[in-house]
Amino acid sequence: MYIKDNEGNIVRRDFYGGNLKGIIDKLGYLKKLGVSIIYLSPIFEASSNHKYDTGDYKKIDAMFGDEEIFKELLDKASKKGINIILDGVFSHTGADSIYFNKYNRYSELGAYQSEESRYNSWYKFNDYPDDYDCWWGVKSLPNVNELDPTYMDYIIKDDDSVLKRWTTMGVKGWRLDVADELPEKFIKEFKKELKGVADDTILIGEVWEDASNKISYNQRREYLLGEQLDSVMGYPFRSNIVSFLKSDIKSIDLLNRFMQIKENYPSEAFKSNLNLIGSHDVKRIKTELNEDKELVKLAVGIQMTFEGIPYIYYGDEAGVCGNTDPDNRRTYPWKKEDEDMIEYYRNLTTIRKKYKALIYGETSFIDTKNADVFAFIRKTEDEKMLIVVNRSEKENDIKLDLDENTIEEIDIESNLKKYIEDTFEDDRSFEVNIKAKSLKVFNLKNLIV
Question: pTM (2 decimals)?
Answer without folding.
Answer: 0.94
